[in-house]
From TrEMBL:
InterPro entries: BTB/POZ_dom, SKP1/BTB/POZ_sf, ZnFinger_BTB_dom_contain. Its main location: nucleus. The keyword DNA-binding applies. This is BTB domain-containing protein. The gene is Nfu_g_1_006291. Coiled coil: none annotated.
Amino acid sequence: IETIMTSSTATLRFCLSTHGDSILYKMKDLREKHCFCDVTLLLGSPNGLAGLPYHFHGHRVVLAAQSDFLRDQFLLHEGRAELSVGVVTSVRVAKTLLMSCYTGILEVYCFSSFSLSLLFCYNVQSMQHFCKMEIDWKQ
């Protein structure tokens, strides 16, 4: 609690220390229930096989806050409910990174080529341009 004093008034300011985590948790829960999702990202096809792309339902504001690339795509394709992200070389990596936008947590198994690639992408790019990376994500 912080008290702000001016010449004529006093104001109490409450800082909710868990507000950010609480909002992320609620957004993740809403995303999982497909509530208020305003964009569907079409991510390649599972395991690199020919077929239908994976559909990631999300919220533009959450994804744009984490990725300049996605923010730019949303601005370029404003109003579109579906957006193809064809530059993703691994659906598994993309799903993991996108979910970290909602959890603030990036969890991978240690010492696998997948985890090393993912950590490289996450640390070096800080989620800003993960869709642009053309790294061989083979396991």
